[in-house]
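If you are new to this repository, start here. Below is one unmodified record pulled from the training split, so you can see the exact layout before writing a loader.
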Amino acid sequence: MNKELFEPLTFNHGTQIKNRLAVAPLTNMQSHVDGTLSDEEYKWLTMRSSAGYGLTMTCGAFTEVGGKGFPGQLGIHSDEMLPGLSRFAEGLKKDGSLAIVQLIHGGMRAQEKYTGFQPVSASDQPKYDARALTTAEVGHVIENFIAAAERAEKAGFDGVEVHGAHGYLLCQFLSPELNQRTDQYGGSAENRSRIIFEIVDGIRARCRPDFNISVRLSPERFGMKLGEIINVAKRLMAEEKIDFLDMSLWDCKKEPEEEEFKGKPLISYFAELDRKSVRLCVAGKIMSAKDVNDAYENGADIVMAGRAAILHHDFMQKIKEDDAFTSISLPVTRAYLEQEGLSDVFVNYMATWDGFVEG
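And here is the target side for that same chain:
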């Protein structure tokens, strides 16, 4: 293992992490119906933040009621969430992990049965019964992301991540397939990415100077074009308003899907960029010490564990102690996951993943 993985890393806005291993933002469905933090969600994630990770990120927290994408989702949409969020921040930070809230709006994926509102998107999406946001409403979405970041700061979190990946609302704006707008938020790639840059600008202007900001992007699926996402990444790095770019690659070892980019690993297209002071974080099928080391050797500054962190609350410690460590084979028993801090609700959700839970 590269020993640098376990050494501190600084960010360009004054914050620092004690090592380069992070817990990925993971949907767990354990919060209360109104979005307030539950004891179950607190237990599962603090069990991981206390196990040595340099950075721990919450699940995607919805920035407005209409953006709630799944049951049991954490909310950061109102000040009524602050008591739980403050408790969460304190718990996640108590053993030295950087505590980050991921901010999300589900867009067309925010079902009316969870929100009470018709879903919205960059453009009309009949398949999801989603309507296009008006230009004024896009402004409200941007303001709600910024206000949520201010709320995270007030609660004591070290920073926020703006979720622009995986087909959620900001990704829907980025997608040339899903975004058919004719205003300043549609058309050219620059216009389609405008919403993300305006959110980042607002957070940087209204939160304290050392507040950590990151953006999550995914370069494939949902109509994403790799060349366009590379350009968004370049601009985010060039402007240096974010601390790290979080690339969700689905698999850190894979080649791109688009024929013109095949021939080298997907990760390389982002690792080769001029990052200036911005750090590169990657996620995607990190299941072993070798996977972590390979991702780091291939240019990542921070490596995120998702499934491995679900399966082993102390994954970071295990790979530090054993450079041949590999996550437990799937499927695992319900009892095993409960021992790892997952509630019945979370285990039931994991059972919807093919081959994850026995029975």
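Two things worth knowing about this chain: The first helix runs from residue 39 to 49. The chain has a mean pLDDT of 97.
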